[in-house]
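Q: I have 740 residues here and want to know how they pack in 3D. Can you give me a structure?
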Amino acid sequence: MIRMTHRSVLLGGVLVTCVTAAFAQERPSSGMARRATADTRATATERAMQGDERTVLTHGLWAIPLIPNVRIPAEAILGAGYVTGIPRLGVPALVETDASLGVSYIANLRKDGATALPSATAMGSTWNPDLIRRGNAMIAGEARAKGFNVLLGGGINLMRDPRNGRTFEYFGEDPLHSGLLGGAAIDGVQSQHVLSTVKHFALNAQETGRHAVDGKLADDAFRMSDLLAFEIAIDRGQPGSVMCAYNRVNGAPACGSDYLLNRVLKQDWRYPGFVMSDWGAVGALDFAFAGLDQQSGAQIDKKIFFGVPLAEAAARDPAYAARVADMNRRILRSVYAVGLDTHPPVKADIDFAANAGVARSVADEGIVLLRNSNALLPLSKDVRSIAVIGGYADAGVLSGGGSTQVQPLGGPSVSLPMGGEGPLAKYNNQTYHGTAPLAAIRVLAPNAKVTFHDGRYAAEAVAAAKTADVTIVFATQWMAEGADVPDLSLPGGQDALIAAVTNANPKTIVVLETGGPVLMPWLERTGAVLEAWYGGVRGGDAIAATLFGDTNPSGRLPVTFPASLDQLPRPALPYAGMIDRDFAVGTAAGTRYPIDYDIEGADVGYRWFARKNATPLFPFGFGLSYTQFQSSPMKVTGGAQPKATVTIRNTGTRAGSDVAQLYLVSTPAGRTLRLAGFTKVAVQPGTAANVTVQIEPRILAESKGGRWTMPAGRYGFALGRSATDLGPVVTVSLPARQWR
C-alpha cells in the first residue's frame, strides 16, 4: 500500500497539498514503482500543460442524448460520462460507465448487453473478498471490451436505514465488512486497468430527498463507522477516484465539504487520487477549494463551474491557479497509476458464458438460508409435485433500478414501468432478467409435476398449495435509486398471500428476492425461507441449485433484519412521501432537512441492537447450512498484527463453507461489540480446516480528534455464528497505541 507524504502550504488563504510518495510493504514492488512513476509523470505532465488545457480534465459531461443543447463528441461512447483527453500530452479521455453490478445499459441507448452480477447485498452475504475481487474484475473486463476505462462502482455506504432505496447497491452495515469487500471490488476493477471509484462519500444513507437532506453525525462516531468503511476500502483497493455524494453532511454539501474532502480524505488519510462529483452535485465554483477535483456530468448542474469560470479564476488568483495545478496532478496520477494510457481499452467480443459463470458463483455464495424447519431443505429430486407461486418466477429474477441497472443479452424478460420524474423516468422499470427459477426447478426435478401460478389471486394459489407436496412462493421487493421504500413489508399484498399459502401447506418455502431486510409476519408458519436478494444473470439457476442441495448455502447476513420498525433508530422514515419538487421548494425558501444520525452514532445495525438489548428477526452474520460445523477453542495472539486462530470441523455429511466471525466484545474501557475480522473457509465432511483471522487494529481503538487511540490492557474476543450467537470469550493483553 502506498502511503503519501504531504506538505501543505497556504496560498492566498487556500490550503494546497503537495504530494510525494512513501511506501508500506503490503504491495509488490512493481506496484510501488508504478505508483512512484505515476507521481513523477503527473507532475511533469501538469507542468507541460498550456493555459487552455488546464481545465480540460476538471469537468466532464453526461454522455447520453437526453438533455437538450448538449453536444456529445463523436469519439465518446454513450454512457455515464465522458471527460475529454489531451492528445498533445498523451492523456487519454476518461470514458465512464456505471456501475458496481455490471456495465449499465443507460436507457438501453447502446443496444448491447452485459453480465449482471447479483446485488451488492448478495455480494456482502458471501463474506468472500476473493470472490468479490473476481466478480468485479469480470465487470471491468466487459467495460474495457466496450471501450470504457472508468467504472463508477465501489458503493460502500453503510446501511443506517434498511428502507434506503439503494440498500441493494451496498455491502452491508458493518464498516470492516464493507471496507474489506469494497477494497476487494476496487482492486478487482483496477487489475484490468480500469479506474474505479469508491462512493458515495459520505453518509448517503437515504435516497428520498438525497439532494437536500443534511446528515448530522459527530466526528468521532463518523470516523468509527461510515468513514472507517471508506478508509479501509481506500487502503485496500487504492481507488483512482472518490465520488462525493449528493446529500449534505453536518451542514455542508458533501461535494463542497472541506471537512470531508480536505481534512479527512486528503490530509488525515493522505489520499493521493482525485475527487469526482456525483452527477449534478456541484453548486458553486468554490467547491474546488473544499477539495473537489472534477465536476462530473457538468451540464446537469446550473453551470459548468470547473470549465471557463475555473480558468478565469486561476488567471486572476494565484490560489486558484495552485488549486487547479493540484487538481490536474491528482487526476493525472490516477490515470498513470492505473495504466489508462499504457493499457487503453480495446473493443472486443465478450465471453458471456464464462462471465455468467462468475456471476453464478457469487449468487451461489450469496444466498442465505434463514429458516429450515424439520430439515425441509434440501428438497429431494424425487419429489412428486411442486406448486411454484408468484414473483415472476416463470420469467427471471428481480434486479434493482437506477444507474446500476444492467440488461443481459436479449434484454429483460419482464419490464414493468414504475413512473417517477426526470429524464430517465420512463426507463426506470421494475426489471426481471436472467434465468427463470421455474425452468431451473423443472430441470432439477424432471419427474415432478411442477405448476406455476402468478399469485394475483390468493384463492388460486391456496388451491394449488393444498394439492402439492411442496409449495415454493417467490416474493419480491423492488428498490431503486432516487426514493426509499416506505416500510419493510412485501408490496402488493404478498405478505397476505404467503400467510394464506402457508396455512394451506406447512411445507411452504419462501424465496425472497429483496433489496434489503423485510419483515416476515408469516415466518413461523413456513417450512423454509431463502434470502436470494437480486440474483443476477444466473440467479434462477442458483436458487434452484440451493433448493435441491446441489449448492450448500453458505451466505451470512451482512445486515440485521429488524423484527419491527420500532426497533430502528428512526422508526418513522424521515421525509417519507416527499418528492424532489417538495424539497426544491423548501430549500429555495431556506428550509433545512436534517437527519439525526447521532442517535445511533457509530453503533450502526447490530451494534444498535446490542446497545438497546433488542432481539432482531435475524441478526447480522446469521445463516444456516445443510451441514454442521464445530470450532475448537480459539487462540488470540497480540503483537503488531494481532490475530485469532481456530480449527473448524465439518461434522455433517455434506461439503460446506463456514465463516469464522471474530467479534471484539470487551476493551479496557468496558463491554462493546464490533466485528474485528472474518475468514470464509470451505470444509469437506469429516475434515477440519485451520483458520487464521487477522484483526483490524482500528476496530480495537477509539477515534479521538482524528487520531486512533488504543489503551493498554485486556481485550476480549469471541467467535460468533452471528452477532448474537457468540462463543467463549478469549482475552489477550495488548499494548497502548496511537496513530492517525
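Q: Anything worth noting?
A: Confidence is low (pLDDT under 50) at residues 1-28. The two ends are 16 Å apart (CA to CA).
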